[in-house]
């Protein structure tokens, strides 16, 4: 599917402009404290001309036939451009977690690392993360490494999404 840059794109958002729009696909999750699983996911990146994107993601657990079993994670937030390919990311999750990330983007690659994590009293322990998003053959590929539940930072989620 062809992608066109919006006329009102803020110049500082240029390094991640390829992410604008809606992406859908499937991925895999694994972690020492949970059973491995397959999931479907939708990511939405929007822009209104100011130096940030609004981000929304929702996921659902799927079975071996790619049929939805149940709803899973939801996260939303803002990806704020600060210039020279640098970004500040603020995310909140339905699971009671709020995060501040720092990101760097260049040549179709966007890496994030956590700067701060806050949790509600009922949220599971989660202390750090690292994300990598990449434009690979026109698809959005990503990987999420997590440190949680007493475990060191390690792979947790990975997916390949196509532009909707």
UniProtKB/TrEMBL annotation:
Residues 13-163 form the THAP4-like heme-binding domain. One of its GO terms (molecular function) is heme binding. Keywords: Heme, Iron, Isomerase, Metal-binding. It catalyses: peroxynitrite = nitrate. Its EC number is 5.99.-.-. A motif (GXWXGXG) lies at residues 21-27. It is an enzyme of class 5 (isomerase). Its cofactor is heme b. Binds 1 heme b group per subunit, that coordinates a highly solvent-exposed Fe(III) atom. InterPro entries: Calycin, Nb(III)_bact/plant, Nitrobindin, THAP4-like_heme-bd. Forms a 10-stranded antiparallel beta-barrel structure able to accommodate a hydrophobic ligand in its interior. In fact, this fold hosts the heme group, which is located in a wide surface cleft. Heme-binding protein able to scavenge peroxynitrite and to protect free L-tyrosine against peroxynitrite-mediated nitration, by acting as a peroxynitrite isomerase that converts peroxynitrite to nitrate. Therefore, this protein likely plays a role in peroxynitrite sensing and in the detoxification of reactive nitrogen and oxygen species (RNS and ROS, respectively). Is able to bind nitric oxide (NO) in vitro, but may act as a sensor of peroxynitrite levels in vivo. This is Peroxynitrite isomerase.
């Amino acid at each position: 599917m062809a992608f066109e840059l919006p006329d009102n794109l803020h110049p500082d958002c240029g390094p991640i402009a390829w992410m604008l729009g809606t992406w859908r696909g499937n991925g895999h999750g694994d972690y020492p404290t949970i059973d491995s699983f397959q999931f479907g996911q939708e990511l939405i990146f929007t822009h209104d001309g100011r130096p940030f994107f609004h981000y929304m993601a929702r996921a659902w657990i799927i079975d071996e036939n790619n049929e939805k079993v149940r709803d899973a994670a939801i996260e939303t937030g803002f990806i704020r451009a600060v210039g020279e390919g640098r970004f500040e990311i603020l995310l909140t999750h339905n699971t009671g977690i709020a995060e501040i990330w720092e990101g760097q983007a260049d040549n179709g690659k966007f890496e994030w690392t956590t700067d701060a994590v806050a949790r509600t009293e009922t949220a599971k322990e989660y202390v750090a993360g690292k994300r990598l998003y990449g434009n690979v053959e026109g698809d959005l590929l990503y990987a999420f490494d997590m440190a949680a539940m007493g475990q060191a930072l390690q792979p947790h989620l990975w997916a390949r999404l196509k532009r909707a």
